[in-house]
Design a protein that fits this description.
By secondary structure, the protein is an alpha+beta fold. The two termini are about 30 Å apart.
Amino acid sequence: MQYAMLIYETPEAFQSRKNDDQDAYLGAWRAYYKALVEAGVYVDGSPLQLPETATTLQLKHGKRHVQDGPYANTKEQLGGFTILECPSLDAALEWAAHCPAASAGAVEIRPLAPDLKRRVTDRHL
């Protein structure tokens, strides 16, 4: 089963991205990534640019409404995602518990929806 691990980080965590390669938080991420790969559960993933680089679009009454910044106006923002291949939700949660962002932000685990993806991508219009 594949799970998306949505990583929510604090402003301080985003700030650490500007530090040099000796930053402890970045080092923790390197070690975590290596452990995921070595365990064979890492499928894909990527960090995102800083929240202030986001642009949010909504359609209201058929008109586009665009705002600078992320959709959610909260302290923690979506910082990235990782796709895991795990035998169970419990296994995915165990990996999430080791995620460097779990102690300062939040990590959401959500199953992927391959059946819905097939329904969307396999139909030829």
